[in-house]
Amino acid sequence: MSEEIKNLIIEYVKKEYLEEDAEEEVNENTPLISSGIVDSFSMVSLKTFLEKKFNIKIPDDKATPEAFDTVTNILNLLKEYNVT
Amino acid sequence: MAYSEKAKLHYATELKGIKEAGTFKEERFIESPQAANIKVEFPAGSPPKEVLNFCANNYLGLSSHPEVVSAAHDGLKERGYGMSSVRFICGTQDIHRELEEKLTKFLGTEDTILFPSCMDANAGVFDVVLDKEDAMIADRLVHASIVDGMRLCKAQLFNYKHSNMDHLEEKLKETQDCRFRMVITDGVFSMDGDIAKLKEICDLADKYDAMVLVDDSHATGFMGKTGRGTHEHCGVLGRIDVITTTMGKALGGASGGCVSGRKEIVDLCRQRARPYLFSNTVPPVIVAAASKVLDIISKTTDRRDKLEENTVFFREKMTAAGFDIREGVHPIVPIMLYNAKLAQDMARDLYNEGIYVIGFSFPVVPKGQARIRVQISAGHDREHIERAISAFTKIGEKYKILGMKKNEIIEMYGL
Fold this sequence. Notes:
Chain A has helices at 2-17, 43-54, 71-79. Chain A is mainly alpha-helical. In chain A, 44% of the residues lie in helices and 0% in strands. Chain A has three helices and no strands. By secondary structure, chain B is of the alpha/beta class. The mean pLDDT of chain B is 97. At the A-B interface, helix 2 of A face strand 6 of B.
């Protein structure tokens, strides 16, 4: 399941944030926020996607740039909501 | 006094961090009115230096225009210095309403309300027109003031890839259940000088029953054949529901902004927009001068025509000289350098040559897209622009980047 969730998030990030001709590779350890792929303004759509997909509510104090910086970090955050 | 050592240390550490990240902003002291030619004291304490200004938003060269300054003097004499009030208590003069009417006519809208700045207009408007059952669908590169305004609004936030109409359509489909939707964009994006695809945006908005809001701060007064703005440039006059814009750029450059558009939205802003209700009225001196600016630019297109000629000339000559320039038609001309240090070094050398420009790098622009942003003005004479081109060419030669493509510059200087 975890592998499936990982791929789901990576696919979403690629589709939502990268241009079609982008050369960047995204894997579970690619920095998203600190690299500028996802800026703090756009992060809201990633949060909404996770909330809708897994039927959870992530409070703002948990949705920090650090918690969202890599797919691995996001997976760790999801574990707190029993999404594994 | 409860300013503790702990607090003091915290702020000092924050400042140190900004300096270490290379994003600390130093202000330069200008010892003359805003114009093409200015006197600058930089670094602080050094003797003033005469430079040509290529980084102001003074697009029409009206910031220190004699007729505008004279109108400001008259305003001061006839309507005083301050109003000591918000608009709805005793802060609305006849000239405030006159200026709002002139803006409405100029922008081709139904009504207009003045704000202390466009930042305030953007901070106030969303919360007034949208609520939690609504959706805001914004271009990902909208101005920071729109981002802040949207944060103050309870409506759900969606954003689409910069100027990507397929992505916008996806978001419009995704939000069909919302009560009201508003597509939100800058008319002209300030870092690239690129223009929103307003025709496509309006068509999509019609198809999916959404409103359109455009922040036209970098366009009002000169984009389009008669300078109305991006909506005129794109052929969608009358189709934009809300325009927010500023008087702090082309329209005299002092301060003040507005929300202009559908009558009911403007009326509701007058009742509920918090930055309007709880800020002082725009001072009479600014209202009088801005009003004169609108008279000038409504009478003749000479200044916007000169700006267009200057822009075309600069873009052509810089491209011919071998610079990598973001294509476009706007007086914001990004000279792409990709490497942050190269952008800083070249801007410093250009300043030493008497050309005042600024280098921009991450986080102001995306990583690996550092550039010098040049802003052309109708206040520049041909000779000023030629001097800038020749200084750029000299410095470009020094750094051996003339004729180089993106990959070659990156190979030489890194990202």
